[in-house]
Amino acid sequence: MSSSIEILCYNFFMGRDKLKRNIQFKPRCREFIATTCNSKDIIHLLHEEMEALYLMDNQGLYQADAADKMGVSRPTFARILKNAREKVSMMLITGANLLIEDTKEDYFVLVASMKNRELVLGKPNAPFLMLYHISQKEISEAFVIDNPVFIENRRPGQILPLLCNEKKVNFFIATSIGEGLKSALLSKGVYAMSKKRCTKEELTSCI
Fold first, then answer.
1. Domain C-terminal end among 64, 85, 100
2. Ordered DSSP codes for 27-62
3. What is the DSSP letter of 205?
4. Average pLDDT, stretch 177-202?
5. Number of domains the chain contains
6. What per-residue confidence (pLDDT) applies to 1?
């Protein structure tokens, strides 16, 4: 079984072209290890394959739209998606371990803040949202957004998941986050993190 999995992964690696893909999703958990069958087999899921699963099976996009987001042709996207689903199904069927590749070197963090000139962590309905672009473990850009939850006096779960998706946010941080909001954010590929306080230095090590 080990050799067949190795050959499968080898074929997938050799068959891919080297064009750079547009990657939005950043995996926080990258290793899925079988605990009951003690398998030594390893399946490697490429980051582009994880992105295809994210766009199709999590975001529910049509293939043409998903391909456009990744910057590839529709036939290329279909091939990437097929490879991804075959690998995941083989993991489930054989009990092999799954390792997800992470090539995304930058990510976006959205933080609920009580002030707009300094980071003072607040609840999801805080007056401001600080959007940080993290690149190479440093803050490359920072933006202040008037929080629509605060302005419109609406539930965070109705607004923040869509806003995070629009801004390509990977992590959302606030002092307290309800389970409903966590689930709504996760459905958009956004990891919710509750903290009592947060410094700008900590933003560069969310993973």
1. 100
2. -S--EE--SSS----EEEE-HHHHHHHIIIIIS---
3. T
4. 90
5. 2
6. 47
